Amino acid sequence: MCGIAGLAGPDAALHTTTVASMGSAQHHRGPDGTTHRTARDQHAVMSMNILRIVNPEAANGPYTDPETGLLAALNGEIYNYRECARRWDIPLAENETDAHLVLRAWARLGTGCLEHLDGMFALAVYDPRQSRLFLVRDRLGEKPLYWRLDGGRLAFASEITSLTGYGRAPVVLRPEMMSLETPTGVDTPYQGIQLLAPATVLEFHALTASMEQHRWWNLPSGDPIDLPYRDSTALATRLLAEQVPMRRPDGDYALLLSGGLDSSLLAYLMCPPVCVTVRYPGQERFDESHIARRVACDIGADLLVVEPQPDDFQSHLPDIIRALDYPVGNASTFPEYMAYRTIADHGLRVVIGGLGPDEFLLGYARHALALFGPTAVLDAGMHAYRPLAAKLMSAADAPLDAVETVTRLILRGPDPDHRVRSIVRGSLEAAHGDLGRALTLIDLATSWRPLVATSDKLASSLALERRSPYLARPLVEFFHRLPTEHKITHPVQGKRILRDAARELGVPRQVWASTDKIGFASPLPDWLTGPLAPWTDQTITTALDQAPEGIAALLRSGLARRGGFNRTRVHALMTAHWLTSTSLPQAA
Length: 588
Hints:
By secondary structure, this protein is α+β, with helices and mostly antiparallel strands. Helix content is 41%, strand content 15%. The chain has four domains: 2-215, Aminohydrolase, N-terminal nucleophile (Ntn) domain (Glutamine Phosphoribosylpyrophosphate, subunit 1, domain 1); 229-360 and 449-512, HUPs (Rossmann fold), CATH 3.40.50.620; 365-445, no CATH class; 524-580, no CATH class. α6 (229-243) runs antiparallel to α19 (473-481), α6 (229-243) crosses α21 (496-504) and α24 (533-544) runs antiparallel to α25 (549-560).
């Protein structure tokens, strides 16, 4: 895990101090060193923060190829870089790592090397022979990369705050922030700043300011895998056993262990030395620590139990908002941040988490509701999701089509311009009517971005590298190609094939047969209407004085609405704190 920043343009060399400041602003991403370098032709300057994970003797970046003059900076990890070095006969010295492999592979193959890289990365390469800057992001967007074009210069960085330091970027209201609690696509709440899309190459000519973008990878879109379920399960078991351990770092590291299927399977496959779980005394409905304790005992790991209190949230909310750049209305950001703090306090530098199976193997309650309907879900005993099911159960409604059904399930607020409906409709069309596959595409277009961004930003703010083994390309492509019936056949049995693979891999029945999905949930919504209610109301009320009407409506909803299931109050509080700690919004 590192941080990268830079600038390309005709007068880039005159802005070296600015780029150095951009790098310093994200020093926490790589506290082992921050260095900046100017390209051979003076038309690009890059900075790189380094966190030495792969090689403790690694030289500081950015890195230069003496023969071609290529300049490169890398954030992330290429897990198969040694294999690629052997394949391409690229020598690596003792103090060289995956970044040097990418630099030399790019010199030989250009963007053609990307297809072979297995990892999570945001990459910047400048070629002085053509005066061209290339920005690249990994397949699923695990590592962030933001950019802005201003005055014929292109600036980029791992964090928005680095780019706001480069020049003024007024806060703007993106409609999806109200309807989905997050911007979608490549938009950010900062005017002129965009997020590079996953699996995308941006090519910028430093002298002409011309720019083009193209995708370098896509999920498979062909027919589902035509294999009997037994054979598919055997293949899934083999892929998991092969791919997951490849994400295991050298040295000590920690695993986020909720006690659920995804994290427990990782524990048995990776055998981490340390596991971290979160519990809330007196809140049994959020407590899976007894399962986490059994798993940790089985694999011989130390178990760290984090017990956040209401005062912890009040104290650390400024740190969480600062790390995220803008608000995300998800209560799980709090326990995730507290787990990362504990890991960092124990001197560890890598943390493993279980992102991926819920999206690719239909593990969320909204998937079951879309596929089976609310009556079947409630009849199966999933009563905790009655408020969500109620969105589909109005007696006045005619039967809902797939677009309306899924839209109602994912909306968190108003959608007056039908932007969210357009995303849902487009995903269904891309999936050629296959609702199961479309649900994954919809998740990737809506809820996925804040999930991966939260994981990266919260961990990086504490100088931790976050790894997600289930996002290995072979696993992702295989899971996506499975027919829906291999993923779910009953409302309470999502991730069917993962459950059966876990059983084959020796995971206890208590884990793979469980139908309760808790994860790192928290009682935060209850706290905001209980012990933290006065502080919450005061924070939201203060922000109302400076909020534009669109955001003001959200804040007023946060003051009015109560109830543990409703996320509006969490979203309103985080938005209020963000508003009062940034420049005044100017609604676009």
